[in-house]
From TrEMBL:
Pfam families for the chain: HTH_6, SIS
UniProt domain SIS: residue ranges: 101-240
Alphabetic keyword roster: DNA-binding, Transcription, Transcription regulation
GO biological process: one example: carbohydrate derivative metabolic process
Annotated ranges, domain HTH rpiR-type: 1-75
PANTHER family assigned: GLUCOKINASE (PTHR30514), HTH-TYPE TRANSCRIPTIONAL REGULATOR HEXR-RELATED (PTHR30514:SF1)
Organism encoding this protein: Ligilactobacillus pobuzihii
Designated name of the protein: Transcription regulator
GO molecular function per UniProt: carbohydrate derivative binding; DNA binding; DNA-binding transcription factor activity
Record keyword Transcription present: yes
InterPro entries in UniProt: Homeodomain-like_sf (IPR009057), HTH_RpiR (IPR000281), RpiR-like (IPR047640), RpiR-like_SIS (IPR035472), SIS_dom (IPR001347), SIS_dom_sf (IPR046348), WH-like_DNA-bd_sf (IPR036388)
Amino acid sequence: MAFLGFKDFDRLSEVDLDIYRFFTENVEKVPYMRVRDIATEAHVSNSSVMRFIHKLGYESFPEFKVSSHAEQEKAHVTDHRINFITADNFPSDIYSKIELVADKMQGSDQIIFCGVGSSGALAEYAARQTAAVGFNSFCVKDPFYPLVTQLKNTSNNLLISFSVSGKTIELIELLNNFVNDEDVTLVAVTADPSSQLALMSRYVLSYSTDQKRIEKYYDLTTQVPALYVIEQLISTARRLALQQNEKL
């Protein structure tokens, strides 16, 4: 609902927080209630309810109700189709690029997977699967992790980062430390090949997908294309490793 994305809690008084809790516990019925009904059930005054509505950014209670109704209707619209990814989700040279990155993995002393939020979960999965097939890998989900210090005096590092938008500020700030580092090769997995993350990376494994947000703050963009890239990358790297072992 319209109030669920509110984050500026420092501006809220104890009474405001009581109203906010009432709103979040009664998401379905709040858009249909009157000010005095909310005040009665939340055990506050009418004026307290209105002050809270104004803090949410609405000039009037009717405006708040209209916005809440619209958000509720949007939330109830569902699409029951299962949309699997196709070749259209990827550039025509995606497999050749995956081959290049997989080959780079063979010569790397360690592989670091980075991401924030849902992309961090992908990075963790990628690191686990990569380690399972015999590569020295780990995951960094904290953009403030002292990675610069950890990689000091090391070489042949492959740093693979995940970001749908390619514009995650904290991630970009972390990677800026390695742009000119000869011992770290940057790889981006992103839906925007023209993003800052992509431009600062040596290799870009891109895909296309519709970015989706609700309540302005919550990212519901599918990570299936990025997961597909991970699976293909690991499969290719394992194949190359097996071929190399057969030659020995």
